[in-house]
Amino acid sequence: MTVLSISRRTVARSVRALGVVSASAALAIAASGNALACNISEFSAAAKCDGDKGVITVTDVDPSGVPATITVYLQSNGADAKMVGEQVVKGSRDGATISFSEEWKPKAEYRIHVKAGSYVDEDIKPNVVAPDTACKTESTPTPTEPAPTKPAESATPTPSESESESAPPADSAPSPAGDSNLAETGADSNTGLIAGIAAALVAVGGGAVFFGLRRRGANSNS
Fold first, then answer.
1. Fold for domain 41-129?
2. Domain map (residue ranges) of the chain
3. Which of 3, 23, 72, 171 is the most buried (most CB within 10 A)?
4. What is the mean pLDDT of each run of 10 residues along the chain (222 residues)?
5. pLDDT in the model for residue 190
6. What's this model's pTM, rounded to 2 decimal places?
């Protein structure tokens, strides 16, 4: 009887010990499963530059590779101003990164929401804040020297031009009055002498006519 009682108690103790071990193993397995499951700490986001363009990047380092839907919202005064975009990412131990094209302004704020099956349905904390400097800086145009202006041509002729236009040709200079009359009549320096001779001839002719008339009258009276 004594031997049988001891054996039953030993078996009972062994069963209880086995139960404790099994429960501990189950808890360890459950904890391990939770550790391997997707969680929000495995996601990160940043506002970066891709050349001279702005982008919002999200990186997933979930080794289990659970597909996660990422949604990016631009914030304004603590509320969603617009949805920038939505993509699905499948994480890996080395990390998988997706990019959203966004011409963000300096210090702009973005809310990144993650939805991964039944594991994650929350935002990445804190919100993403863009850098203080934009990706593309506007270059200041270099001032160019103005082209030299050509002086306006004056309508007033220069003294040399005015004199050349107003001065008559040397050949067309007016002749003295005496020379002009002589040229027109064809006379020369003997004009006075010729006029005297002509007057004497007229006088002689007149005298001859006078004496001829007197003589004719005397003949008629006799």
1. Immunoglobulin-like (2.60.40)
2. 41-129
3. 72
4. 57 60 47 64 96 96 96 96 97 96 96 96 97 79 64 58 54 52 51 75 75 68 56
5. 66
6. 0.49
